[in-house]
Amino acid sequence: MDLFTAIESRRAIKHYSNTQAVSEADFERIMNAVLLSPTSYNIQHWRFIRVTDPQQRARIQDAAWGQTQITEAAELIVLCADIQAWSDNPLRYWANTSSEVQAMMLPMLESFYQGREQLQRDEALRSSGMAAQTLMLAAKALGYDTCPMIGFDSEQVASLINLPPGHLISMIITLGKAARPANPRAGQLPLNEVLMENSF
Ligand SMILES: Cc1cc2nc3c(=O)[nH]c(=O)nc-3n(C[C@H](O)[C@H](O)[C@H](O)COP(=O)(O)O)c2cc1C
């Protein structure tokens, strides 16, 4: 599927066919595409929990006010991020570069994030947002549907997945084949309301 068709046909799908799985090859292809998403300093804050256990799904559904797509979709991914990834052995983010590049980038990275807790958290959310959009578009390109979700009790889900300290849950994404199409688009703001030239 062409990229613009994927962008235009991706919708937040709430009802899934429970007979159509995501093949393992497709799942891996989607996730490997996700790993190519851009991140500041190549920090790759994202961490993914693939929820395969039906009982764990049901518990997460309870923490998400019963939203049905959580148990209906073939796959459920809790998209997390490591807020401290900037300081966790950052040399590996530049492993394939020369020692000169590493010697330049690593101190830059450290002085950029050191002591800036809001920025560290913002960055984890930015990176996971990038990952989410790649996931949803890659899935669409292979004929699958998704729904990004933040409608759940984050503390409860954190406890269910044993979220480590210094991490956050960015969102949950369901992945599978739609059983019902989305409603017509609710109303996109016109370009001239959101696009400005040079300043607000
Ligand atoms: C961060 C985020 C959280 C969302 N949370 C939920 C959710 O908990 N439940 C739900 O049904 N849809 C959720 N949505 C889907 C939005 O309602 C949907 O993306 C929006 O209405 C636009 O529709 P579209 O994605 O089909 O274009 C979420 C979307 C985003 C990006």
TrEMBL record:
Keywords: Oxidoreductase. Signal peptide: none annotated. Gene3D superfamilies: NADH Oxidase. The keyword NADP does not apply. It comes from the Bacteria. PANTHER family: NAD(P)H NITROREDUCTASE YDGI-RELATED, PROTEIN DRGA. Belongs to the nitroreductase family. This is Nitroreductase family protein. It comes from Amphritea atlantica. The lineage of its organism: Bacteria, Pseudomonadati, Pseudomonadota, Gammaproteobacteria, Oceanospirillales.
